[in-house]
Every structure is written in structure tokens, then in C-alpha cells.
Design brief:
- This protein has five helices and two strands; from the N terminus they run αβααβαα.
- The protein is mainly α.
- It has one domain.
- Strands 1-2 form a two-stranded parallel ribbon.
- The termini are far apart.
């Protein structure tokens, strides 16, 4: 089992999200992350040491494949739903993407401001 730094995990999540967006044919994306360091590194095309440079290089490659690519930092408090979904799906052995309809249980949490 591999142990990643938080920064590496954030970069992996960003890359994975971009792969999914590309796979489903999105042409314009906004990548939001609560990792300011990752946002800055992606925005500045930072050159880093192994192993994170592999992730950042992939992210830049994917970014060039979209007609519009924007990255923005979101404070963790504005990212609660994403964190809830991650924690709820930690025990899944497969990837899961929701489009329509979005799970009602998660919609209820947002509607009632529970997260």
C-alpha cells in the first residue's frame, strides 16, 4: 500500500476529475480545489520533483485538451459536499460518477444546509 502526501492526493484527485471530464466529452471545465498549493502549482506550470511532477505534468496535458480550463481555490468550508461524498465512498471498490439524477440523499443535505 502506498502512502501519499496530502499534496499528492490533491493532485491525484485533480487529475482524476479532469480525466473523467474529458472522458465524458466536456469541453470547458472549472477545477476547484481546497489546496491552494496545488492551485498555484497548476496555474504557474510549476516544475517539481518526482513524484508530484508526474501528476502536475498530466494535469497540464489534460488542461490543454479542453477549450476552456479554469482553476480556482475554494476554502474547505465551501467544499463540504465534496468532502462528504469522498468520506461516504471510501469503502467503494469502484469509481462512481453521478449525473442525473443526483442522489436525493445528498440533495437533501444541501437543501437542509446540513453540510
Amino acid at each position: 500500500m502506498t502512502t501519499w502526501t496530502v499534496e499528492m492526493a490533491e493532485a491525484f484527485a485533480a487529475r482524476f476529475g479532469m480525466q473523467v471530464a474529458y472522458k465524458f466529452g466536456f469541453t470547458n471545465i472549472i477545477l476547484e480545489s481546497d489546496s491552494l498549493a496545488i492551485c498555484i502549482k497548476i496555474s504557474n506550470n510549476a516544475v517539481e520533483k518526482f513524484p508530484i511532477f508526474v501528476m502536475l505534468d498530466d494535469i497540464q496535458r489534460y488542461a490543454s485538451m479542453f477549450e476552456g480550463f479554469y482553476i480556482c481555490h475554494v476554502k474547505r468550508g465551501g467544499n463540504c459536499l465534496a468532502h462528504f461524498i469522498v468520506h461516504e465512498s471510501m469503502d467503494l471498490d469502484a469509481e462512481k460518477a453521478w449525473f442525473d439524477p443526483f442522489p436525493q440523499s445528498l440533495c437533501n443535505l444541501v437543501d437542509y444546509n446540513l453540510i
